[in-house]
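Quick one:
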Amino acid sequence: MEPPGRHPVRRSDRSSQFRLTRSRKFPSAGPSHPTSTVDGVPRISAFYGIIIAMYFDDHPPPHFHAKYGEYEAQVVIATGELLNGDLPRRARALVKEWTDLHRDELMDDWARAERQEPMRRIDPLP
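Output:
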């Protein structure tokens, strides 16, 4: 029986269920290494309720995934514009600001992901 307040995730809900789990794929590389995943995808940053994740060996153009509540979007690294999906206006502005501040680090993580190497955690917005 589940403890009070906890609900099991049904198999059919797993693709849409937002879960954080500990990553065991790569050994720890210090504080710059991602320590958790979102649905099996390395989480590289989080700020103001927005989770930033990047898939290994994903399709071009270089992009990352931003999740905020029930919203999810793919964001182009070069421009900070949405490739697919949607985010509320304020969350979109915060993601754009963060992207502009960390573009070089994002491109480095994109290259690492293409090589199937561990990605590095990127600092959140202050």
